[in-house]
Amino acid sequence: MTATGLMWSPDHSEKFVLVCNRGLNFDLAFVDVPDAPGKPVVEDITPEGASLSWSPPPHDGGAPITEYKVQKRKRGDTKWDDVITPEPITEPMCKVPGLEPEKEYEFKVAAVNKAGTGPYSPPSDFKKYSEYRQVLPHSGLTL
């Protein structure tokens, strides 16, 4: 059997049709790693951890996103640390435990599909967990 042509699939997705000399056609799908997700937003930091959210990548690389990888870094550090969670992060949000009080942190996220891990997002803005943070009753002010 000899391949006689390669053409885009009729729906112009990321699939190709391999045309062979015996009248056989094969659908081929090329999968790439996903694009970077959106910049994470630190919703809140409490003694239990930082609540993050982000937008999914604009392009999944042709395969579903199976999980997200999150990294954290303290201000002044050069090395990013992987965030370890009890379960894989499958939604564009998570809680990051184990932060030190009075330290500023930034976070970044990468999406994973069957082709591998895509590039990391731009880092979040720095956010500090303060042990002494409290909300004054009836004022809405945070100290």
Walk me through this protein's architecture:
- With 143 residues, the chain is an all-beta fold.
- The protein folds into two domains: 30 residues, no CATH class; 87 residues, Immunoglobulin-like, CATH 2.60.40.10.
- Helices cover 0% and strands 39% of the residues.
- It contains no helices and eleven strands.
- Strands 6, 7, 9, 10 and 11 form a five-stranded antiparallel beta sheet that branches.
- A hairpin with a 4-residue loop joins β2 and β3.
- The N and C termini lie far apart (74 Å).
The beta-strand count equals: 11
Outline the low-pLDDT stretches.
none
The top-level CATH class of the largest domain is Mainly Beta
Structural class, from secondary structure content? mainly beta
CATH fold-level topology of the largest domain: Immunoglobulin-like
Order of helices and strands: EEEEEEEEEEE
Tell me the name of the CATH homologous superfamily of the largest domain: Immunoglobulins
Largest sheet: 5 strands, antiparallel
Secondary-structure blueprint of this entry?
Elements: E1 3-8, E2 15-20, E3 25-29, E4 41-46, E5 49-53, E6 67-74, E7 81-82, E8 93-96, E9 104-113, E10 116-117, E11 127-128
Antiparallel strand pairs: 1-2, 2-3, 4-5, 5-8, 6-7, 6-9, 9-10, 9-11
At a glance:
By secondary structure, this protein is mainly beta. The chain contains no helices and eleven strands. The chain has two domains: 1-30, no CATH class; 41-127, Immunoglobulin-like, CATH 2.60.40.
